[in-house]
Design goal:
heterodimer, A: mainly alpha, Cytochrome Bc1 Complex, Chain C, 17 helices, globular, B: alpha+beta, Rieske Iron-sulfur Protein, six-stranded antiparallel beta sheet, three-stranded antiparallel beta sheet, transmembrane helix (chain B)
């Protein structure tokens, strides 16, 4: 059969070009694969969910609790179909798998980026893939956000209202932009069909295209080689080929990953739509975005309201600065990494993070800053439980935003220099042992 | 043998292709803009989307008793959420909740407790006061603070003092909660006019004035 196919499709060329791609063997090189597996599971479960979802916010009678003919219990169709999905065999399970995979995908992408950052793998020639990776991260977060709008329960409704407010806070064009993106003034009749379109067509399309580009560039440029490859065969590509050695590892990992996600989903429920109920005027106690957007949320909570100004007829509100300008600076900084830290020659080998203490320390300080801002997202709870005084909570949290990253930076440098001192001491010891023999 | 002299063409191939590509791209983008225009629907101010209007009756917004008129006896120092209820041209009762930012917060404080920026003229006997219940920061509905100290927005920790005219006492909100002038009508609470200051989502007087005119005219 191979020959039959080969004569028609030249699969041996495909084999030579792509299927023999060498994969370095190191556990951190599997994090990116986990991101890919999450995407595949998300697409599969998403297709199943889309078969039963009704993308409309028109009001329908709730068939689970119809009320009386005179006073019917009307709920949005999208919310109603979410209830129906929950009532299907395995319906709730698919929702949970979809939800957990979305969170894991972003988490795995972040860990994958950390590996790239700390080993300097973004340097020449791989800058392009770092930028495509950044776009993948941004579009993953956008896809996730449009996704949790779809059940259209009170939580989704309040979240959407807030994202609408953030969009409308853009100077000059904000209100127009928000009405354009949300299909009319909030909550317009077209809002759920619009977000359904974004979530199942537009954004996954972008994600798949970017993923394909990411993979092709990776195959073309090859992985950075782990340090051990230098010792085995200098400047040669070391690793196991995709077919046949890497494939079984990948399949095993994918199955294991799917099993863990399903196990997780079986025991940890997600977003109970019944609990929140259909959209209403009731505020939601402790409403928070998903963890990867918590830092923006925290930033909004501590930004002072005095930070607003008018310029050339446009209004720059504190909300615009907190929810769009500062996060864009943060994201811009991440985009700029390959330009801030450049290599003259093409990189072959992943660098040992301890050989680049300032890069390592800067990365850790950056993560510490995002963690401080995420904690600031709990400002309300912190104040209510007496951990922070109400009056100076903002000042304290802003102080910590500078202090904690600075401490993290200093500690990392100290830690790295201690490691290096031990390492050189070890080397000296070994040299001495080589010459004079061991003491014992 | 005939010799043909090749004349310089008036238009080179490269130039022709560039012009053709440019023209196609222009037409394409123009028609695409038309499609995108359809993605931005018109806003129509229907009765249920008008802001609270003079003569509206305040009704409960709590889903359990939504639509029942609020009586002064229902009110106290804890928040009561309300919708304005008006009538359309045929005299049918319309709860104006098509615009979710019409949500109102109604309180009744002891006489003399209202101070600061509260407009006592616009309250009932200086005791019953109504504000917009929508946080001026990101548009979340604002509940009472759990510690009993004014109002606290769960979204980004905005704090308001309803006894002092709904002013901001903490957090990121840029404006105070807009006060709605009310009068008593029997046991019920009637709206006496538009919000005294621009409510959420209006950030400037001009657009708020335009909305008021549109609501009056429609």
């Amino acid at each position: 059969m191979n020959q039959w196919l080969d004569e028609r499709l030249h699969i041996s060329r495909l084999n030579d070009k792509f299927l023999r791609k060498a994969f370095p063997v190191h556990h951190t090189f599997f994090i990116g694969e986990i991101t890919l597996f999450s995407l595949i599971i998300l697409i599969l479960t998403g297709i199943i969910l889309a078969l039963s979802f009704e993308p409309s916010n028109a009001m329908v009678v709730n068939s689970f609790d119809p009320g009386t003919p005179a006073d019917p219990n009307l709920v949005p169709a999208a919310y109603h179909s979410a209830l129906k999905i929950n009532a299907l065999p395995f319906g709730d399970m698919f929702r949970r798998i979809h939800h957990w995979c979305a969170n894991i995908m972003v988490a795995a992408a972040v860990l994958h980026m950390m590996r790239i950052y700390f080993t300097g793998a973004y340097k020449k020639p791989r800058e392009l893939n770092w930028w495509i990776g950044m776009l993948l991260l941004i579009f993953s977060a956008l896809t996730a956000v449009t996704g949790y709008a779809l059940p259209y329960d009170n939580y989704a409704y309040n979240t959407l209202k807030e994202i609408y407010a953030i969009t409308a806070s853009v100077p000059w064009v904000g209100p127009w932009l928000a009405e354009f993106a949300f299909a009319g003034r909030f909550p317009g009749e077209g809002i759920i069909p619009r977000f359904y379109g974004y979530h199942i067509m537009l954004l996954p399309g972008i994600l798949l295209a970017l993923t394909a580009a990411h993979m092709l560039i990776m195959i073309k440029q090859k992985h950075t080689q782990p340090q051990y490859a230098k010792r085995i065969a200098y400047k040669k590509i070391v690793g196991v080929p995709l077919i046949t050695q890497q494939t079984p590892i990948m399949i095993m990992l994918a199955l294991l990953f799917a099993a863990i996600v399903i196990l997780f989903s079986a025991y940890v429920p997600v977003h109970p739509v019944e609990h929140y109920g259909p959209p209403s005027s009731q505020p939601i106690e402790g409403i928070k975005p998903d963890w990867y957007l918590l830092w923006v949320f925290g930033l909004l909570a501590i930004i002072p309201n005095t930070l607003s100004f008018d310029l050339l007829g446009g209004h720059f509100s504190a909300e615009f600065i907190g929810a769009l300008v500062l996060p864009m600076l943060v994201i811009g900084l991440m985009f700029a990494v390959p330009m801030l830290d450049r290599a003259k020659d093409n990189m072959y080998y992943a660098e040992n993070p301890t050989n680049h203490p300032h890069r390592l320390a800067a990365g850790i300080a950056f993560l510490a800053l995002l963690i401080v801002w995420s904690v600031a997202g709990y400002k309300g709870e912190l104040v209510a439980n007496g951990y922070l005084p109400s009056a100076s909570a903002n000042a304290i949290l802003w102080g910590l935003s500078f202090l904690i990253p600075a401490i993290a930076y200093g500690l990392t440098l100290a830690y790295v220099s201690a490691i290096r001192r031990l390492r050189t001491a070890d080397e000296r010891e070994q040299e001495r042992a080589m010459v004079y023999g061991h003491d014992d | 043998m005939t010799r043909y002299k090749v004349k310089d063409p008036e238009l080179t191939r490269r130039r022709f292709i560039n012009v053709a590509t440019g023209a196609t791209a222009t037409v394409g983008v123009m028609s695409l803009l038309g499609t995108l225009g359809g993605a931005h629907p018109m806003f129509r101010m229907t009765e249920d989307k008008k802001p609270p209007m003079e003569g509206d009756i305040l009704v409960h917004a709590d889903p359990a008793k939504e639509g029942t008129p609020i009586t002064v006896a229902d009110l106290g120092t804890t928040l009561v959420q309300a919708w304005p209820m008006g009538t359309d041209a045929e005299g049918n009762k319309i709860i104006r909740k098509g615009e979710p930012n019409n949500l109102l917060a109604v309180y009744k404080f002891a006489a003399g407790e209202l101070s600061g920026e509260a407009n006592v003229e616009a309250t009932i006997d200086g005791q019953v006061v109504a504000y917009s219940d929508i946080c001026t920061h990101a548009g979340c509905p604002v509940p009472d603070a759990k510690d009993g100290n004014g109002m606290f927005c769960p979204c980004h920790s905005g704090q308001y003092a309803p006894k002092q005219g709904g002013i901001v006492v903490g957090g990121p909100p840029p404006h105070k909660l807009a006060q709605l002038p009310i009068v008593a009508e029997g046991d019920n609470v009637k709206v006496a006019g538009f919000f005294l200051t621009p409510p959420y989502p209006y950030t400037d007087e001009a657009t708020w004035e335009a909305t008021k005119e549109a609501a009056k005219g429609a």
